[in-house]
Amino acid sequence: GSRLWRLAYRFGGKQKLLALGSYPLISLAEAREARDTAKRLLLRGIDPALERKLQKASAEDTFRSIAEDYVDKLKKEGRADRTITKVKWLLDFAYPAFGDKCVREIDPVTILAALRSVEDRGRYESARRLRSTIGSVFRYAIATARADLDPTVALRGALVGPTVTPRAAVTDPMALGGLLRAINAFDGQPTTRAALKLMALLFPRPGELRAAGWDEFDFESSVWSIPEGRMKMRRPHRVPLSRQAVGVLTSLRRISGGGSLLFPSVRSGLRPISDNTLNAALRRMGYGKEEATAHGFRATASTLLNECGKWHPDAIERQLAHVENNDVRRAYARAEHWEERVKM
């Protein structure tokens, strides 16, 4: 059989054997060097066999493997498919640079080089989101005892700040009246017309509405309950339904009530309409992207409701499902302001 160099030692009151390598692949001098390294560990109270296992496990803890574990965790938490797809898309920018590298060996300089390569293509927002995603992977690695620090912390302020372009919104009452009349006269898909009406009446995020299911609506109580999986802040959200909204939903139910979705895709009744459907309808009505967007109905509601002075700002924020950063205001926001929102 093969001949092996071994070191016999005692640790924790037990006799153990540590394999140092096979002869002649490992020379006598190399075996003695490995023996001396093991003895130095023993003098420090460290089991050389356990240390070897830890080093091997560390070498297997590549950024890619931990990132894949992190994505699996997001799936188990019920994150939206769209969110998972975005995270995986961003991680694909990082893998060529350090995907197969042990996380403990990845430094800020290595990460910055990968981020700069994204910036060089003019994708400043993508670079910023990539840094955030890489940081999330490292924090997950720290939480699972596979890394000691997050090197992205040192990169704050290193990237080009993205230019923030507010989503176009109609904030003049007269102009809003014109938009609502245009929606009412829209001659496209009746489900699209209904969706635009509900955006104006309920002002949810477009993704929250377009993927809505009929089982989320309680018509007896006039409440729409959006599950946390579709909410941006990962919290369930209740929306009071006005009589106008109930009227739109009642008419819509005659069209799509036979399925599970309010707004099924024309191509596949099992999937909702796409992100672009509502914006495309606005363009068809003659509203340019600098004039109105589906998401802009939220800014319209926030602006006009705050300006009229009839409603408490916290009630408006709760209706918009905004989460306060301030701890005190967040505590107050836990109140639903339900009665006021029903009137609003």
Structure write-up:
- This protein is mainly α and 344 residues long.
- The protein folds into 3 domains: 3-58, Double Stranded RNA Binding Domain; 63-155, Orthogonal Bundle (DNA polymerase, domain 1), CATH 1.10.150.130; 173-343, hpI Integrase, Chain A, CATH 1.10.443.10.
- Helix content is 52%, strand content 8%.
- It has 15 helices and 5 strands.
- The strands form 2 sheets. It has a 3-stranded antiparallel sheet.
- Strand 3 (217-218) and strand 4 (223-226) form a beta hairpin.
- Helix 4 crosses helix 5 and helix 8 packs antiparallel against helix 10.
Which key features would you list for this structure?
344 residues; mainly alpha; DNA polymerase, domain 1; hpI Integrase, Chain A; three-stranded antiparallel beta sheet; 8% strand
How are the SSEs ordered, and which strands pair?
Layout (H helix, E strand, L loop, with lengths): L2 E9 L2 E10 L4 H16 L4 H13 L2 H14 L4 H18 L9 H12 L4 H20 L29 H12 L5 H13 L3 H5 L6 E2 L4 E4 L10 E4 L2 H14 L19 H9 L11 H13 L4 H7 L7 H7 L4 H6 L1
Antiparallel strand pairs: 1-2, 3-4, 4-5
Helix pairs in contact: 3-4, 3-6, 4-5, 4-6, 5-6, 8-10
GO molecular function: DNA binding
Pfam families: Arm-DNA-bind_3, Phage_int_M, Phage_integrase
Protein name: IntS
Give the C-alpha Rg.
29 Å
Mean pLDDT: 87
Q: What's the arrangement of strands in the largest beta sheet?
A: 3-4-5
Number of separate helices: 15
Please estimate the helix content.
40-55%
Low-confidence region ranges: none
Domain Tyr recombinase: 169-344
InterPro entries: CB (IPR044068), DNA_brk_join_enz (IPR011010), Integrase-like_cat_sf (IPR013762), Integrase_catalytic (IPR002104), Integrase_DNA-bd_sf (IPR038488), Integrase_DNA_bind_dom (IPR025166), Integrase_recombinase_N (IPR010998), Phage_int_M (IPR053876)
Organism: Mesorhizobium sp. WSM2074
Domain Core-binding (CB): 61-142
